[in-house]
Each structure stands twice: as C-alpha cells, then as structure tokens.
Amino acid sequence: MKGKMIVVSAPSGSGKSTIINWLMQEHPELNLNFSISCTSRAPRGTEQNGVEYFFLTPEEFRQRIDNDEFLEYEEVYEGRFYGTLKEQVELQRSHGENVVFDVDVKGGRNIKQYYGDEALSIFIQPPSIEELRRRLEGRGTDAPEVIEQRLERAAFELTFADKFDKVVVNDDLATAEADALAVIQEFLSGKE
Q: Which of 44, 65, 92, 160 is an S-S bond match for 97, by CB 3.0 to 4.6 Å?
C-alpha cells in the first residue's frame, strides 16, 4: 500500500522538530520517515549523500528546477538551495512509508496543493509571539538581530495557519504531541 504524506510547518521555535522527533521515536507504528531533501550546500561533519540530504551543485539544482523535478524548493540565499524531489517522495511512498515533511509554510502549502487529500498539512502554532521570543532567547543559539528576523518571519507565517488542514497549538508540549498524534492517526486510518 502506498504511503501518505504528513506536512508539518511552523515558525521557528514553535516546537515542530521536537514534536516530529517524538512522533517518530515513540510511535513506530505510524511508519513515519523523513523525506530526504536536496541541498546545494556542502556536507557537514558526517553527513552522507542520500542519508541526510542529496547534495547537488547549484548548477544541478537549477537544472532540476528547470525540469520541474521539485515538489517545493527555496533559494535561501544566493546559490544556496533546499528542496524536495518528487521522484524521491514517490520512491519512499512506493515502499509504504508515510513521508514526513518538516518544511516552511510556503513549502508546506506547495506540497499540500500538489498532493491534495493524500497529504495532511499540520501547522504547529506557538501560543503567542511573546512566548516564541522567550523560547528563541532561551535557546541561546541566535544573536538578538537573528531573533528579531525570526520573529518578524513568524508573524508573517502565522497568517497562513488557517490554510492548513489542522492547527496544533504548542502551549504545553505533552498536549501538543498528543494532539498531533491524534490528528495523524485519524488521517492514516482514513477517517479524517
């Protein structure tokens, strides 16, 4: 049986990756597997081609864009691309994997639009911009100006929440995890 797609989008600091990782570790019965994205950046550390990413040159990436091979892609800055190949997703689905996308709002909308009812789109929403600021500052990983950029982008991304199939508010992590699990189980069982 062909796998389905679970698209998860959220502003930075909303807990999206934490929730996805919990679902994948604690609920193997869901058969969730990340889509393997492409990037034009060089591998970091022990990253391997075809495991964490498919590493392409900027020229190869542009050629694949011209050939309409991507479900979604973004040029994060000049010559630095990230994207999801249609062919890779179909390969994973043909193996019965339920493919998880951890993508930005624009990419999430594109994937949902492409697959329609075969994809579930979930928006992880922070309880407020103020709480998001507290979380981002608490990470201690970003300079103040980067936090301001992330908050500005988050305010914009929050305007897209109603374009997703389901919104999960992450005010309390355990509750948000349970809510996401319930939504995904319902979708995979075909009772949505």
A: 92
